Amino acid sequence: MGLSTAALLSNAGYKVYLLDINHVRLDVIKEGRSFFYEKGIDPLLEEAVEKKVLIPTDSYESSVPNSSIVFSCVGTPDNPDGSSNLNYVFSSAEQASKFMRPGSIFVQKSTVPVGTGAVIEKQFAKTGKKLEYVSNPEFLREGTAITDSLWFDRVVVGGSEKLACQRVINLYKQIEKKQENIAAIAGLKHDHDGGKYFTTNRNSAELIKVTANAFLALKISFANSIAKLADHTGADVVEVMDAVGADKRIGRAFLSAGRGYGGGCFPKDVSGLICSASEHGVDLQIMTAASDLNETMPGYIANKAQEVLGGLKKKKVTVLGLSFKEGTSDARRSPGVKLANILAKNGAIVSTYDPQANSEASQDLRKGIKIHHDLRDSLEDAQAVFITTEWPEFFKLNPSEYNNLMAGNVFVDSVNGFDMKTINDAGLKYVGVGRG
Ligand code: UDX
């Protein structure tokens, strides 16, 4: 989020200091590159670093006093009890406030529980300087971060000072003005128009972000619950959700059943919301149910495969996809990694392959799981293949080639992305999630 924001603002005409304490990352950025895979970001970084409008630094002292606006884009991982760990949020705000000029604005983009801004404003008051605080949650998705930011659905700014909120909105308006230029540099195509601006109070802005993510997670878990019922009744959840989602009041997005949600946001944002609600005496049972259901999905799929394979012990299987979704190298809380580990734990001999996430996933995979660097190699002798992300490469390989490369013919489509008939016609045995 920080890197995307910096890449966009520096290409929209602003001078941006990019402050991080991680020197390995800073060294990569100084070369005009990203330290993770994200479509379109590298050309933007290269352009801005070369023009010296993007200045990577590890020093608050040499960057913050020169800035009229400071964005906080730090991580908010979860604590073991599921609550949000706000150590980075508070410590970076405190550090920045020491060096911020009076009248400058601190923009909170990190996902924080409602009420966090109030605590930071109190912290700011102790400095004796007039510092503005604006909550400006970020909605970009990994894999489409630049497109999502250039053609946004909405920008939310929350704060008590109207002028400060307007100054933050002006930054986004400037990005909008430069939209086509930035897209040309990034090699991205025009997406959609009509993004809206919402100015709210600080607490509403904080709650909007977590509510949006929670609702999307809820939709996915709802689809997965219906998928389980479809499996018992011979209905096809894809057909069901296509028709249900055609109702404009519902919408088709995030109703794709499969191996469940993962990544650095949904799992921790859902647990963070549950914990923050309970601190206020509110029991968000609905989100607990969504989270619990999500946890069951990789095991549910392994179980379905086990029935078709006649057990997992000593079965050679291949898991394709280790990132938490296509288009990113991020393997945090990856359903593919979970599935591979469950299969291995139950005695299967597991091979894996991912076009971008092999190295990030390696630390989370159980001992003995083999990581391949070529799709075809990974399939050799497999009795079953498990597709866990929608990387285009997996769809480009002809179903008959899957069949030729594999020793068996079980094709577990845990993202429900393939056409069932095409797979079965190629002599493979299609196993989906909720597809009868
Ligand atoms: C999410 C939010 O979408 C974004 O607005 C926020 O700023 C950050 O968190 P991200 O984590 O990048 O973005 O991924 P997203 O595309 O939302 O997918 C999350 C997970 O849900 C992935 O594992 C994805 O595969 C899964 N998913 C998504 C489903 O299982 N079914 C669906 O129908 C959609």
Characterise this structure:
This protein is an alpha/beta fold and 436 residues long. It has 19 helices and 13 strands. Strands 10-9-8-11-12-13 form a six-stranded parallel sheet. Strands 3-4-5 form a three-stranded parallel sheet, with helices on both faces. It has a two-stranded parallel sheet with strand order 1-2. Strand 3, helix 5 and strand 4 form a beta-alpha-beta unit. Helix 10 packs across helix 12 and helix 13 crosses helix 14. The longest helix is centred in the middle third of the chain and has 32 residues. The site of uridine-5'-diphosphate-xylopyranose has 20 residues, from helix 10.
Largest sheet, strands/sense/barrel: 6 strands, parallel
Structural class: alpha/beta
Which strand order spans the largest sheet, edge to edge or round the barrel?
10-9-8-11-12-13
What overall form do the CA principal axes indicate?
globular
Summed over residues and divided by their number, the pLDDT gives a mean of 97
Beta-strand fraction estimate: 5-15%
| Rg calculated over all Cα atoms | 23 Å
For the termini, the CA-CA separation is 39 Å
Query: What percent of residues adopt helix (DSSP H or I)?
Result: 40-55%
Poorly predicted ranges: none
Bound molecules: uridine-5'-diphosphate-xylopyranose
How many beta-strand elements? Answer: 13
The DSSP helix count reads 19
